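Weekly structure sync - notes
Attendees: PM, LS, DV (DV joined late)
Agenda: review two folding runs queued last week.

Item 1: First target. Sequence and structure tokens pasted below for the record.
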Amino acid sequence: MSKAQSLIEQFYQEEQERIAQESTFTPVDVSVSSADMAMINTISKRFNKDKNQLVREALSQAILDMFSALEPVERKMLAKDADELANSIAAEIAEEQGLDSLEVTGTNWVAQDKQCIKDERKAEKEQQKQQEMLAQQILAEQQNSHSSEDMAHEDDAEPEQAQMDESTNEVSPEDTPFAEQTAETSEEPAPSNNSIFA
């Protein structure tokens, strides 16, 4: 099979998948503001997308965000109810189309609830980690501040110690030993033998 033939096979497969998926879609009559409609038209033209597909994807993402914002206990209850209702809707569509069963497409809300719980726990751990890092940083800054103050006190104490050392090095005549004083007095010149009374 050539590359062109395999490409056509891929197109057929994508078409079948799209038809199967779209068969589970439930139409909703939605009215939007003219400003929102203008933006939908503008985005769909810019990215060459079907308006209905664009609205469907945007609405799906908005519903996910709303679901994530629910309280955990309520979210769990609503997820179970939504999955049961989705299975019921899929069964009705299958019956209308004469099919035995139809696979539910879109979000599995119970699984999404579990993912929300994981994300929340991860966010809590990350926040706790950041708080611990902040506390360690504050503690380190306090320790650095205390050590700087201690060094400043030591620097202030050094001149005082130097002054005390200098004052002890200055020796007053009263502090000199008796032997040194007598040695100094004994060095006075002796009387000359050439005295006139000799």
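Item 2: Second target, run right after the first with the same settings.
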Amino acid sequence: MIDAFGIILAVTMVGTALWVLLRMYRNSRKKKVKVDPHVHRERSVWAWARVVSSTHGNAGLGGMVRVDLELEVHLPGTPFFSAKTTWLVDQEALAFVETGKEISLKVDPLDTNYIYPNGSWARVLE
């Protein structure tokens, strides 16, 4: 006599095992490749931004000040977007990053989290 419950249980277990193995196989193929930071800088394009807010820290070694910026970024051919970044800015150049000022910068169009200053007066805090 055939035990229906045993057959249903066996089919369910085999199906579940196949489903888990298939999911594991698919997920193993989708591993992200970490992009070298220099790649972001190389593919960045010119843009401009309006400083929405800037928070200045204390001056550190070399006369650089940590500045947290909230920007309204205008990338050519796209609508503007809001972004946050942190730069090290020369003390003499703090006037460039005051609230309401417009600044020139470079943005990676494929990953807009990478925003670089245009000039030697600042650098990205990485």
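Discussion on item 2: The longest helix spans residues 4-29.
Action: LS to circulate a short write-up before next sync.
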